[in-house]
Task: structure prediction
Amino acid sequence: MKQTTRIVLFTCLFPVLSWAQDAEQQAPASPVRVESAQRDTFSATLWVSGTVISQNDARIAAETDGRITWVANVGSRIKKGEAIARIDAADLRLDLADSEAQLGSLKAQLKYRDSSLQRYQKLAASNNAAATQLDEAQSQLDMTRQDIKRAEVAIAQIKRRIKQAEVLAPFPGIVVERLVQIGEFVGRGAQVARLVDTQHREIRAQAPLSVAGWIREGMQVTVQHEQLESLSPVSYVIPVGDQRSRMFEVRIVATDPAWIIGSPVRVALPNSEPRELVAIPRDGLVLRGSNIFVMRVNDSNTVEKVSVETGIGLGGFVEVIGKVEQGDRIITRGGERLQPGQVVTITEG
Result:
């Protein structure tokens, strides 16, 4: 009876195992996403923080004294040479009228003293005038001419101050802050508004002195903003380190219009001598304890498991050391449960 029971159980299980094997063989190919391994000259990178700034950001000051009569509203777009604020120039115009009147008086004196000098010269020619009288007339005429020059300079200065009563924008931009209000009295040099040029932007990043030898102007670096990465050239390297932080400043061109002024970004700066190596996307690495491997798709769309070691980080890529060559298709999505020998289909996106 026992032998019969064992035979029955084996007979029942056999069809089940056969069905499972058939189902596995008939299972559809798993969809995966792949990216190619790259062989190129790379450098190790160091990510540093940066900020998008304006090349022109200034607190515009008044150049003359007076009461504020108008200030541009916050958000106003100002062209170069347009007024940001105006100062009451009524007193200056009165000073100008007074100086112009004085100049007219001096010109009248000049005409009179020029005539007097001519009369003394005629009298001196006939010995009817003393030499001292002639010298005195010449001296008075010369002093009047100098007084006229001083009066003309004073008028030019007043006109310049009247012109300065309009605080003009030295560059195009947007008023982001009003520092005075209408009716306030300001002195020369007082700040009236903050003007920011939003068209000409750049990235300011602080980098450790250890990477200074690998950075040069014009080189392309990776900039990351809100998980999006792009390449931008280095515009300036300021080779002066801070004594406390041991950092120096790097300026990078801000090419993306989405980077508004004040936006935080991350910049990948080179941190080693460039060398040739094979790199894959970081998503292609599979970690199982102390083992690191990648899943590669061969020409027959079959999965292969390749053990690797990792080298330097390259932003979104990482160096791999092992039997991985340029152009190998490495699975980056959909390979979590794949087994070597399994057939897959390649998907886009």
